[in-house]
Every structure is written in C-alpha cells, then in structure tokens.
Amino acid sequence: MKGIFGPAIDIMGKALSLRAKRNAVISSNIANIDTPGYKAKDINFAQVMDSYLKKEKIPEASRAREFTEGDIGLRVTDSRHMTGAPGSVEPVVEVSSERGVPNNEDIDEEMAMLSKNNIEYQLTTQMLIKKLERLRTAITEGGKP
Predict the structure, then answer these.
(1) DSSP, residue by residue, the chain
(2) What percent of the chain has pLDDT over 70?
C-alpha cells in the first residue's frame, strides 16, 4: 500500500502489530506474577518502531511523532538481558530489578503498562480510521463542485 497511500498506513499497521505483541508480553508477565524466578519482559516500542522506520527508509518528515519519541521508561540493567536473536528487529527486554515477591514483578505496575498499551493501541486504531475516512472523502467528494 506504500505507493498510493504513502507510508502512514504502513506505519500505523506496524504500530498496531507491535502494540498487540507488547500486549501479549505484558499479559504473560501478569499471568506469571506468582511464578518464582520469573523475570518480567517488555518490548521497547520506540526502539522497534525507529528500527522499522530506518529499515523501510521512511523519511523523517513522514514519521509520526508518537512513534519515534521515547514511549516507555524501560530500565535495562545489562545488555545481556536482551533476549531474542542477535540483530533482531523486535527485542524483548528482561527487566531484572527486584520489585515483587517471589519474582521481580509488581502487579500494579504491570496493569498500568497494560492499560497504557491498550489506550495507545486504541489511539493508533482511531488514527488509522481517520486516515481512511479522509481517503474515502477525497474519493467520493473530490470531483464535486
């Protein structure tokens, strides 16, 4: 869809996909809240989107501001906490600070991250809907005097 619609729809599609994956990771953290030794994980949305935008060679002017600025205050204590394939586009970060018992999770913090991610997913969905509505208006109303 790049050619006719520009990069906006592709960027929003990638953002929605990434938000859904992040939702699954956070939900897994919540599901394992009482698992001894479990380390909470997260996906750094801003880093992955920035990597995607650079890989796709999308110009800075076309990038949506909310996709490239810092999205979350993720704490990484050591580069060895990165999981996934080396050079992977979608890193999953293990956060190793001790927060809860019997593991490093805090249910309130995880629920807040899940709520924030859901709101940002809904925001991106609304942005995509508005973009498609503008395209529909241009198609249906474009030739009318």
Answers:
(1) -HHHH-HHHHHHHHHHHHHHHHHHHHHHHHHTTTSTT---EEE-HHHHHHHHHHHTT--GGGS-HHHHS-------S-GGGEESSTT-SS-EEEP-S--SSSSS--HHHHHHHHHHHHHHHHHHHHHHHHHHHHHHHHHHHTT--
(2) 63
